[in-house]
Amino acid sequence: AQENKTADKKQPPADLKITSDKMVAGKDQSMVEFTGNVKAVRADSILLADSLKVFFHTSKTQKEDQSNVKRILATGNVEYTEGARKAFSDQANYDTAEEILILTGEQTQARLLTGKSWISGKKITLFKTQDRVVVESSEKTRVEAFFDAEDQGGSL
Amino acid sequence: MGIGKKKLIRPLILLIGLILGGGGAYYYINYLLTTPITLEDIEVDDTAALKLNVIEQISKKNGVTEWQLNASSATLLKARNTAVLKDINIIFYTKQHTQVHLTATSGELDTKTHDMTFSKNVIIRYQRYTLRSETLHYAKKPHIIYSNSRITVNDEDSEIEADSMQILLNQDLIILKGHVKGQFSEHIKNANLL
Questions:
Q1: Each residue of B16-68: pLDDT tens digit?
Q2: Which residues of A touch B177 (CB under 8 A)?
Q3: Is the pLDDT of residue A143 over 50?
Q4: What is the pTM of this model?
């Protein structure tokens, strides 16, 4: 299924705030891992998870005007909230340059909710700049969706 | 004896007296300076301490320098195998030849194990990062730095706080635990933590 809004809305850079029980950082890996009750807040998005890895650009990989946070990978009981939108999955992978959030379900389906409407599938891809959502099924499970008549505009 | 002679005798006696007095003083002072001083009834304190000002120490392992220490003063407490240091400035050398630079108001060095404890305004500088805490320990055998009091690590655009910390110098790994709070600015170059 595909939900399409063509307007390209590039988000302004925003600080990334993270709280957790523990953090481990290694040299030369340009990555920091937060574990235990992790909460990450960036602009109006909130990500909760068991573990969160923040990948940074190095001086070689970072382009002009590009965020120095390259990618965020959340795993375990992932809950993503952005405005009225809420999503649940086993893993969430966010690319800051493309502004694409990919939610994948391992044990359970990834699920995206807005109001009373929801959609679920093996993999949910949110194209934030285009406000577009793509939901994919797997061999075993199909995409399911429920649009509540009362929800505004019936979009997710 | 004529009056002339009487007048002369008094100043003469005075002069002779002065010469004798001066000579005596000279010989007495000379005696003081040359004979060895002997001190009687000294009390020896069994926690006898030796106080050194401006101390520098280098610790090596298999010929490789592990750390180099400077302090404004060091009081060596014999009974506790401890050196109490003031105004400390240490450079630790990691396996990858990067330097970890530490300063603190006071600290203690175990002269046997070379373990160290630092307190008050402890600051560590490592590459672009600065770490601040109130207490910090260095354990020589595992070659780690650790703190059990609230620490803050920051560079020019990121900041992380936690209740405790360990830097594993051999693996170049930093582990923070307890109420970890991180803030990363998005748009300034080179924000990677290590």
A1: 766 666 666 666 555 555 555 554 444 444 555 677 777 888 888 888 888 89
A2: 21-23
A3: yes
A4: 0.72
Minimum CA–CA partner of B168 in chain A: A26
- Residue B99 forms contact with A (CB below 8 Å): no
CATH of the domain spanning B49-184, picked from 2.60.40.420, 3.30.465.10, 1.50.10.10, 2.60.450.10? 2.60.450.10
Cβ burial, residue A40 (10 Å; 0-12/13-18/19+): buried
pLDDT at A47 exceeding the cut of 90? yes
Q: Is the pLDDT confidence value at A29 over 90?
A: no
Which residues on chain B are in Cβ contact (under 8 Å) with A19?
179-182
Question: What ipTM was reported for this prediction?
Answer: 0.78
What is the residue extent of each domain of chain B? 1-35, 49-184
B167 pairs with which residues across the strands?
B145, B174
Nearest-Cα residue of chain B relative to residue A15: B185
User: Using a CB-CB distance cutoff of 8 angstroms, which residues of chain B are in contact with residue A26?
Assistant: 171-174, 194
